[in-house]
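Chapter summary example.
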Amino acid sequence: MEMKEIIERCREFEIYQQRMVSDNYAEIVMYTKEIFKWSAIFNKILGDPVSPAGINPTSEDMRITKEYGGIFTAQTLYKKDFPDNTIITMFWPWQDSKRITVKVVILAK
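The structure predicted for these 109 residues follows.
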């Protein structure tokens, strides 16, 4: 799976800010009111979250996300291994409860 395929699936959603999109990394700010739509897309692509919000992430979750800001208990982490890469996606809710930063990373094997 490539980044452009993932981003294309999210094009229909309202985006607050598109900070960066490259072949291996995307950072987008979405509105919390659309969390269920975004979650549904990432559930289809990556399956259920490996670390849902409210659950303490494992040391492996912390290691794999460290370079991209890490993952914490209030955040959600999706991760799936594919033959050529691993895709991780993090949902970071803002303190204003109105926005969420979405980070998508494609890690080459």
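To summarize the output: Residues 3-108 form one domain.
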